[in-house]
Amino acid sequence: MFKERIKTSIIILLFINLIALTCQLWFGGGLLKEEISDFARGLPLVEKLFPKDEISIPRDMLSRPRRILINDGSLWIAYYNTDVAFSPIENRTSQIIQAFLRGETADSKPVSFREWQAALENVSIYVELPIAYATEMLCSVMGVDAQAAPGDISTIRDFIILPSTEETGVFLLVRDAYDNDNARIYQFPLGSFSLPASDLSIYTENNADYYEPAFSTGVEPEGVSLDPMVLFFDSRPSTADLIPGNPIADPEAAQKVLSGFFTNVDTAGRYDDGGVSVFVENYGDARVYPGGLFEYRAVEEDKGVKITESYSSYYETVNSAISFAEELWSQVGNGPLSVLVSSDLTQESGRIHLTMDYYQDGRPVAVELTGRGFERLGHGIEMDIVEGRIVSYRQLFRSYQTGGTSVLNGDFVGALDHFANDFSARPQPVITDIYIGYIDRGGTDSLKACWLAELSGEDRVYDYTGETQEPAAEAGEVSQ
To answer: What global pTM score does this model have?
Structure first.
């Protein structure tokens, strides 16, 4: 009996060791680590053994393109970063972009903007990042050493990838995000990447939707100009209504947010200013509005909330700012902070203006908050950082629940006509984008999806519901 117990114990130990070795191979850095990890974590038993990693949506999305536009020679198909089929093509394009940033191209030469556009009209892949990046910042975001990065283009927002052939390697075209006259084409050595033109049809087959960039349509609305990459499309999707909530309506929740800025909230001075709760401490003051708007300002730049050292890199400072916003949210919200960084990351000084906007069910939620007693807020979060210290922080604290479903009113062409008429009286207006999303003006009514547009040189979003609109009441008069 005793020998049998020993045998059983040995077998159990061997079995445990086998499991440990298998886990080490699967999860410890083998070639199939990511693939097997993703598969294994989907199994019910493994999900209990291996809890899901915390996800930082704004940090994770910094390195992901906003959209990828594929031209297979006969039609364009767009993939957005929220699409289920986005990852397979994004995995291939990111390898090429990372190799470019590592300086692995064999040759390059300048091209005109017309040549840049002509490349798009051929079999190609267009990759658009969510914001513009300084080249060094993009290297950091994509996990690439910036020492060998090409220095010809200082700010980057988009790429064009041309397939490889039997005689040539992949070509990559890049233009300066702020200067269309500064564009270059780079060639990779033959055999660096296998991306034949025939592969592109894999991503466009069985798609009946219409997509076409503005420069290819020849459409020229009267009174306005269109950015060449404004994307025309014919879909009118059914979208969920969003029911907004205020997670800091409860005073205790507001206190938790305040603790991120004040050393001791309990000893801070407090008074009521027409329904707005004002808190004052030696180094700063904060205001909490009834509708969920929170504002903090430091009395001096060197008295702000320290989030990193003054000599930390631009990338480290931005990451610390994101972590700070996520920590505030974790005190009052359920789930991860669903926002994306929306300000270009091209600044080089010790002063950083960072904005983030809400993203819900694959759609952006623009914020347009105006009213008496506070400055206009045009983003979900706005913060100013000086030498590693937050000196100003503003956020419309918002949670969104899914309501009913409705079909979007109007179509792209109708939205374009509306915005063209609306903007035509302005001096030389350029529409840089038209897309579907939501706009939150701080009220309590549910939000329906609408058409959103952006203008060059303006830090705001305009909306169109597809119907005749009455002038919107100021949010401050309603709920702030």
So the answer is: 0.85
